[in-house]
């Protein structure tokens, strides 16, 4: 919120131009930390390969704060949109795009399939075709996972 204080209100001097005297006082009292005056100037601080590896290891998989059953980003996106996230199938290389068939249940389907059909949750008529395809994909995937060939 540019131009607002922490309470969401504009400061009393908002929109009032500063006098030249005020500008000069600010210039005098403001520390010059540009270029060589910056305490970090010329330090070229770089993490060692060992440190980078330690940091990477500390954030991989279930050590990551957003990791929940390997679905951190997808689950977070759904929560942000006010949805629950209960997947019927697992995310795979092929089924990599989560599709909400309702406000709670998700089926992972191929990204190309998900993008091919325009759909919005608030317009059920746009969801019908993609939901049918998602259920068909899920059914085929389920039978393949359980080695059932004749159905």
Strand content: 5-15%
What is the quaternary state of this protein? single chain
Counting DSSP H or I runs of 4 or more residues, the number of helices is 5
- Main sheet summary: 3 strands, mixed
Structural class category? mainly alpha
If strands are numbered along the chain, what order do they take across the biggest sheet?
1-3-2
Global mean pLDDT: 82
Secondary-structure element string: HHHEEEHH
User: What best-fitting shape do the alpha-carbon axes yield?
Assistant: elongated
How many DSSP E strands?
Answer: 3
Features:
3 strands; elongated; 3-stranded mixed β-sheet; single chain; mainly alpha; 151 residues
Overview of the molecule:
The protein is mainly α. It has a domain at 61-145. It is built from 5 helices and 3 strands, in the order αααβββαα. It has a 3-stranded mixed beta sheet with strand order 1-3-2. The radius of gyration is 27 Å and the shape is elongated. The chain starts with 19 loop residues before the first helix and ends in a 6-residue tail after the last helix. The model has no long low-confidence stretch (mean pLDDT 82).
């Amino acid at each position: 919120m540019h131009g607002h204080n922490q309470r969401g209100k504009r400061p009393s001097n908002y929109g009032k131009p500063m006098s030249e005297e005020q500008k000069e006082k600010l210039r005098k009292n403001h520390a010059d930390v540009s270029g060589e005056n910056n305490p970090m100037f010329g330090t070229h601080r770089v993490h060692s390969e060992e440190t980078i590896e330690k940091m990477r290891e500390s954030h991989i998989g279930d050590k990551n704060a957003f990791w929940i059953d390997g679905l951190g980003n997808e689950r977070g996106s759904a929560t942000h949109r006010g949805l629950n996230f209960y997947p019927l199938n697992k995310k795979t290389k092929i089924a990599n795009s989560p599709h909400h068939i309702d406000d709670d249940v998700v089926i992972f389907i191929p990204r190309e399939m998900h993008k091919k059909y325009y759909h919005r949750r608030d317009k059920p008529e746009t969801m019908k075709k993609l939901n049918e395809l998602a259920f068909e994909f899920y059914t085929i995937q389920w039978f393949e996972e359980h080695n059932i060939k004749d159905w």
